[in-house]
Description:
Chain A is mostly helical. Chain A is 67% helix and 2% strand.
Amino acid sequence: MEARRALNRSDSLPAPARAARSFRKNFIFKVKRNQRVDFMLFALVIGLLCFGLIMLFSASQNTSREHIYSIIARQAALAVLGLAGMFFASRLDYHVYKRHYIPIFAVAIILMFAVPIWGMASHGATRQIEIGPINLQPSELCKFALVIYLAALLSGKKNSDLTQVKNVFRYFAVLGCIALACFFQSHLSAMLLILMVGFIMLFVAGLPKGWIIGMGTMVAGVGVALAVLEPYRLRRLLIFLDPFSDVRGDGWQIVNSLYAVGSGGLLGVGFGQSRQKYGYLPEALNDYIYAIVCEELGFVGGIFVLLLFAALVVRGMQISFAARDNFGVYLGFGIVTIVALQVLVNVGVVLSVLPSTGMQLPFFSSGGTSLIIMMYGLGILMNISRSSTQNKI
Amino acid sequence: MSKGKLSIKRRMNVVLSLFMAGFMLLAGALAWRQFIQGPELRAGAEALQTRDQKIASKRGSIYDRNMNILAASGTAERIYLNPKLIRETEDEAREKKAAAEKEARENNTPVGEFPNLNLSEKVVNVLTTNLDVTEEWVRDQLAKTDRVSIEVKSNVEKSVADKVREADLPGIEFVGDTKRYYPNGSLAAQLLGYCGKDGQGLEGLENILDDELSGTAGRVRSAKSAANGDMPFQYETYEAAEDGNNVILTVDKTIQQIVENNLRTAYEENNLTNGAACIVMNPKNGEIYAMAVMPTYDLGDYNTITDETLLAQVDELMADNNRKYAEAQARIEAGEPEEGDKDIKEMTYNDAYGQMVVKMHRNKAVVDSYEPGSTFKTVTASAALEEDVVKLDDTFVCTGSKIVKDREIHCSDRKGHGPETFVEGIMNSCNPVFMEVGARLGAEKFDKYFRAFGLTEKTGFLIPGESKGSHHDLEDLGPVELATSSFGQTFTVTPLQMIRAVSAVVNGGYLMEPHIVKAYTDSEGNITETVDPVTVRRVISEETSATMREILEKVVTDGGGKAAYVKGYRIGGKTGTSEKYPRGNGLYVASFVGFAPANDPDIVCLVILDEPHDVPNYGGTIAAPVAGAIISETLQYLGYEPQYGDEDAESVKISVPGITGKTTEEAASAVEEKGLRITFKGDGETVLRQIPAEGAELSSGSLVIAYTEAAEGSDADITVPSVSGKSYSQAKSALEKSGLSIAIEGNIQPEELEEGSLAVSQQPEAGTVVQNGSTVYVTFGVNDE
């Protein structure tokens, strides 16, 4: 208390120290109900992270013996960065995002357009920025930026009334803008995810039914048009209905995913014993890692993963709802929605109940900065849990 | 605020519920994939993840009864192509070359050689040179770069495979295989059958004994990665191959050769258009000694027709079909199609060829049924004697035909045989006699014996597709059918059924199961199972059987089967001729069934000549001699010495042919044809004189001396030397030295003389002056002192 009082006497301090004090005051210690992070959320995240790392380690044991740690080491490094980010986010009052939502969103949008333009100009990748060993997918960032943006606006007074057509158009314009960027990146799955997150948040914010139905129809129409305009998408879209009709061609990935899942049975072939990872299942470390989980650990393992995620989603929803203000509610809800949609789509693709898209499974899939971003997002959720009204959870 | 939040909560709960529904759906899908579809998916995954390599088992051999090899397997190889590896190797070489060139530019080092750059070309070259594959085919296969194993050729002999191996090219792989060899070419082709390229028996015994012969292929199942590499861990299973068992047949290779030689000659001489078949069987135990079919084929090249008759039939078949096709098309175009016109398809040469290949592979002796004709009278006669409805000396009168109900049925001899006994009726093969005998038996008893002799059932012979002929059922057996059936017409049987029935007639009345396998051995040659003779049932009594043997011997000695008579052997038999349907088309089946020795038969032989041309169509004239030759040669081979009974005595004496004035060649063939030996004295080319003179009677194998040079005093008379006290050989050489021949008094063969026999008297006596070449008859006896 002595120290704090001393700090408050700002006038007597030199300029740098004043700035530091102001930062701490504004960003870190401005927690009104300074509770602990929700333990259940924390435990689920750490549990999933560990499980994900272990399964990635197993799935990456498919090439020569010399490199058994190369993939897991990289992922572990990302996880450490992610944990640091998560810790930071859980300590940083989430209202900071509301205050700075415009620059955050602006950066995301600029990156979204810059990457495909730069990529096309240089005949390079059109989806990601590669900075040394790290490659950043702007779409990953954009998901969270959009959630922040929507949460900020929907919780505000000016634009939150969705019964006004003007406001709705404003949101749709933003969503359309991001969709366009995704289109330039040929990144259909990101586009769908971002649009779904956006619509779900608008729905929760009270978007009138007419809009929902109308926009839903329109999005479906755009999807169909895309599939027709780009027939390879249509083929990819339909092959999941009967992957065995073209085992060696378009169905190869799905068939091998199903082979892996089907080989698992109740208890699986045993940890580390997957056979499909030996070059049969494409993207076994990435989009299809859940198939390896099912193969090695069987139904028990597969259900366990689904249960962990479902618990995370339920807990996340409870925390969001208990947030002390609407911004917290929307922000938490948006983050949980991203997690839920990614899990549902990814697992749906692996089990071939959905057409194949490139959706990662949080905590499990290897690669990129998505893990760091995802963990940072969950860190925000933890921060919300610190200030939420516990008795309402 | 709180109202707004409630609304948000409601909507959030909707979203949460949807998410939870999604999770439930996925849990359900997971269960579905893992439990309901699990086994199927697991099997698919295993097939994908494992590499199955077959280890060929060695197919067992087929031996004849004397352990001569009829079919055996040798080591061969199977060659595979790995297009993926070839492509990758080439790519790798290209990359290395590029790297080396880059380095060469920078450091001035030599680029070096990259032999794998044009690997595909080398592969094409090696495969097309050594294996019978086209360049186009190999290139097509090489284009399938996602494949790792394409079979190029199976059954490649090791020497050929080694040549391919020498090239040492990556992407050509070898796996052990076995190749089937038939050392005797076409011998017993239809009986043995052949194996396909994968080593499975496709026809004949190879097919029906496949389980026994093939053994169990072993296999190695090992895990492989998608790139076809090995896995870091192994879950390899190894099942050793079990070699097949060997089969020892009852067939005797030599008898089979005897049969085929004679049958081939008959097939060619009689211009048979529907082939020929012959079975030789042991009537006592049902063992098949030989089974031959003509025309035949080379087992090593079983899809090629070499027989000219068959090749001509290929053309005929195609022409005939396509003529019908053209007619049908014409009718369809004219708008007045007949029924079935649409079903007539055009036939290519290959179609027709294929059909004839199938015909060529048929084992006619077991699969094709025919009308047995008069050979069947053996069965009717046995039944009648057994049932005592006829006595041997019952007399019948043949007028050339017999009226049965409203029908006049002719005898083979339309002039009629006149009055004759039952035995004479058989010897004459008189149809009216048998119509009468059949009527005396009655339909019921006829049917009973017909069935008892096994003519309505399959013999159980080991052959794919044995047939059993067709016959009148008892209820359809009216007087007319009974009459015609009694002499072997209006029903069909297979040759195997027929020879089995005749075996029962002559072996004492036992219907045997014909069998072809004598024993099975394991792969090391230890006998694991022997096949015992199976008596199906007793059909007639020993007494009836003995009577039948006597009668049937008479058929050969004095009746319609004379042509089968071979001096020195007691052969019984019966001829048969039946006109094929539709009657009046001039196509016949001539057959003869014979057995020997007649008093106690050890072999039965059935010869069937189908559709002879350009010769008289009677079994007695064309089939009987073939059977006679086969039987006598077989008996000789089996070690039966010719026996000459009293009746034979006269005919055993061979009348010396006249050879003076003939060339040495003509003389030699004339003499040897009679069964005598010839020796030439002098260096001339024309025979001037002969000893003994023309018309002299000698025993078989005696020497005829032909003089080709005029010797001084050659025409002079000769004083007979004394041979008293000399042995046969001494006497013979003494007389032959003087230009005389020797004969033993009392129609005795030299080998029949008792040991130590010496000449006791001679006729003409010593000192008598006789003509050159005369025969001296010498009496031999054993000196008791």
